[in-house]
Write a structure and sequence with these properties.
By secondary structure, the chain is of the alpha/beta class. It contains 15 helices and 14 strands. Strands 11-10-9-12-13-14 form a six-stranded parallel sheet, sandwiched between helices. The chain has a four-stranded mixed sheet with strand order 1-2-4-3. Strand 7, helix 6 and strand 8 form a beta-alpha-beta unit. One of its GO terms (molecular function) is hexosyltransferase activity. Keywords: Transferase.
């Protein structure tokens, strides 16, 4: 598996790549992961790690970490250098150290798509199946966030389509993303839907939201919670605008727990808004308590992103049994997932977003009803055990078919 993001990154793609690798190892496969040094979500080297090549065995998985560029600001040029340096160092590792290991299947996780040609080359030399798992259509997401100008975007889109079409197998995380990948892959094998999962502990009776609230030193009132990466793609500026619009309502607190490029902007706004509170990203083992603390969850996305990325945090939001207020247009993947267990408003529409938050804050019965449906949906669609078993079955089938 080639995955830029991996453990111990607490959120984003890393935990899911880790989950895949460890589950496959638990089923008796020899699994080797080449990943980057941990840096996400704050784009800073994680404590205890260095920008160097390293080897370790982690829960039955052989992990090789490689250094890569970390931009001071993750803009277009900075991200390009970031992805290219990772791909270059992955290539070095494969050329130096694979004589004792001939894989039957090579998985490339996107992002970063720039490392995908390296995965294809390694698989072809070993006669292995090539598998691309798309967590994020990064080209379109970059366009939506303004990181890629028109001519560059068109070139990047052609590269993306070319790469996807070259893989034997492709998977991604939502029905709309499956449909897009199938269009790009052409008439070859169908694309598998392999979702990210909700953590089993979320929504359990052991969760203690009151203890978390006290730990975070939050004032009384209902809590509208956002937890995760603080960046453009997430559209967190909408939360600031909604908090400003509703600061006359003292019984509702907006709580943002996260790290990332927009953290400074949120901290500056929180200094002047009594109903807005910025707190650090919480460790993953405290996630059940954090989500249980909320009365409702906030899931803003910028316009154009709702079919390119299905936020992994949604699974845990639903599993917590709390309703979600999301920004997405009708017919998108995100709207489909939230319908019946939350409220959707148009992307970028502060007034509609604030109205939806206020509607849920003012109606305890609606919160309970939507929350029950959210928990039920998480059980049906986002079970960790079932989703990991499906992934392993699909991969084992691909390996078996290769040998026929």
């Amino acid at each position: 598996m080639i995955s830029l993001n991996y453990a111990p990154e607490p959120i984003g793609i890393g935990p899911y790549s880790q989950g895949w690798a460890e589950h496959l190892a638990g089923r008796g496969h020899e699994v080797r992961v080449i990943c980057g040094v941990p840096y996400y979500p704050d784009w800073q080297l994680a404590a205890g790690f260095a920008q160097e090549f390293s080897d370790s065995c982690e829960r039955g998985v052989q992990v090789k970490r490689v250094p890569h560029h970390l931009p001071a600001r993750p803009n277009t040029i900075g991200r390009l250098r970031h992805y290219l340096s990772f791909a270059s160092n992955v290539r070095k590792v494969i050329r130096r150290g694979t004589a004792d290991f001939e894989p039957e299947l090579v998985i490339s996780i996107a992002p970063s798509l720039l490392a995908a040609p390296v995965a294809i080359g390694a698989a072809r030399r070993a006669g292995a199946v090539t598998w691309l798992h798309i967590q994020d259509f990064e080209v379109e997401a970059a366009v939506a966030t303004g990181l890629l100008p028109g001519p560059v975007a068109r070139l990047a889109a052609r590269f993306e389509a070319s790469i996807i079409s070259r893989f034997d197998r492709v998977s991604t995380i939502s029905p709309k993303m499956v449909a897009k990948a199938e269009r790009e892959k052409g008439a070859a094998a169908p694309v598998a839907e392999l979702r990210n999962w909700a953590e089993p502990e979320v929504g359990g009776d052991a969760a203690n939201g009151d203890a978390m609230r006290a730990k975070l030193d939050l004032p009384p009132g209902l809590i509208a919670l956002y937890s995760g990466n603080l960046a453009r793609k997430q559209g967190v500026g909408l939360i600031l605008e909604a908090a400003r619009a509703m600061q006359a309502r003292p019984d509702l607190q907006f709580v943002v727990c996260g790290e990332g490029p927009a953290a400074g902007e949120i901290a500056a706004a929180a200094a002047h808004l009594p109903n807005l509170h910025l707190r650090p990203l919480q460790p993953r083992d405290r996630l059940p308590d954090l989500l249980a603390m909320a009365d409702l969850h906030l899931l803003p996305q910028i316009a154009g992103a709702a079919d390119l990325v299905l936020p992994s945090k949604l699974a845990n939001m639903l599993a917590s049994g709390r309703p979600v207020v999301a920004t997405s247009d009708p017919g998108t993947s995100l709207a489909h997932e939230v319908e019946g267990c939350g409220l959707c408003t148009p992307a970028g529409d502060t007034e509609s977003f604030a109205r939806a938050i206020e509607a849920l804050a003012s109606d305890a019965s609606m919160r309970r009803s939507l929350g029950r449906e959210a928990a039920q949906r998480a059980t049906e669609r986002w079970s960790r055990q079932a989703l990991l078993a499906k992934m392993a079955d699909e991969i084992e089938r691909a390996i078996a078919e290769r040998g026929e």
